[in-house]
Design brief:
Layout lengths: L4 H4 L20 H15 L4 E4 L6 H11 L5 E6 L6 H11 L8 H17 L3 E6 L7 H10 L11 E6 L2 H6 L5 H4 L4 E4 L5 H14 L9 H11 L3 H17 L7 H9 L9
């Protein structure tokens, strides 16, 4: 039986797997700043929009928001299935609030509005997080600002966080969406990661599985960053592949040569261990 790379490198688990607890997430310095801005906005009962390229760490940022807000004061509802019509969108939100998802769009809207006001009376602030918001139907976008209108638009009882690709910014800038855009207090962009961010990420994930030394040479990290443009999903995939290649060659350090091999063989089946 061939040795796994986890055994070869004495790792307690796969370092670059998707299943990571909220507390163990890695956030770069720039992302930590965004986290502070988002949580501060929600504590002030405000709204936010977050833009970033695919794999830039938007979901990691959202997951970090969850433990940063006291559950006795906030109720977070996460919606990733946004390619729905207006009524099905309200149904999803109703389910998240513990309401029966039945009735017309108007009746669902009224039920949601009443529940949001009840939560406000109990000093619980609901937050609706819309992931992949660049895919929202225009009909749904047209109604989001209405959902935020309580007591003649005088009470901030619900916060919306829209998250998506940079195309979301372009859509919000359209004239027909100006009413919604005017209500978004914080418009934040995830900046591209740096080579130092990639090196820090690789090391932090290795530390989490019990490895106390660098397994990637600096020139290998630089090549990995250039190839992936700092996209975390691609870093995870190629870093794992490189560790497999190193195990097959009985090499204790992934150097530039091994990283080149991992990148060149990315279309091939992974090594069998």
């Amino acid at each position: 039986m061939k040795m796994t790379y986890q055994t070869f490198f004495s790792l307690s688990a796969e370092p670059y797997q998707k299943a990571v607890s909220d507390e163990a997430l890695h956030l770069s310095s720039s992302t930590l700043l965004l986290l502070e801005q988002v949580t501060a906005a929600l504590r002030e009962r405000q709204h936010a929009a977050i833009y970033g390229e695919s794999g830039a760490g938007k979901t990691c940022l959202l997951r970090a928001v969850r433990p940063a807000l006291p559950p006795e004061q906030f109720r977070l509802s996460y919606c990733a299935h946004v390619t729905l019509g207006r009524r099905d969108f309200y149904r999803q939100f109703a389910i998240a609030l513990g309401l029966p998802p039945c009735g017309t769009a108007a009746s669902l809207f009224n039920s949601i509005a009443a529940q949001v006001q009840d939560l406000g009376q109990n000093r619980i602030h609901p937050v609706l997080i819309l992931d992949e918001a660049h895919l929202l139907h225009q009909d749904t976008l047209d109604h989001l600002h209405i959902l935020l209108n309580f007591d003649w638009d005088s009470r901030p009882l619900l916060s919306l966080v829209r998250v998506g690709l940079p195309e979301l910014r372009d859509r919000l800038l359209l004239r027909r969406n100006r009413s919604l855009l005017s209500r978004i207090h914080h418009r934040l962009s995830l900046s591209p990661s740096t080579p130092a961010d990639t090196a820090e990420y690789l090391l932090q994930r290795l530390r989490r599985v019990g490895c106390d030394k660098d397994l990637f040479a600096p020139d290998a990290v630089t090549l990995l960053h250039e190839t992936t443009q700092g996209t975390l999903r691609e870093i995870d995939r190629l870093a794992t592949w490189a560790l497999c290649c190193a195990t097959r060659k009985k090499r204790r350090l992934v150097d530039r040569e091994l990283m080149v091999q991992a990148i060149d063989s990315e279309q091939s089946p992974p090594p069998a261990f």
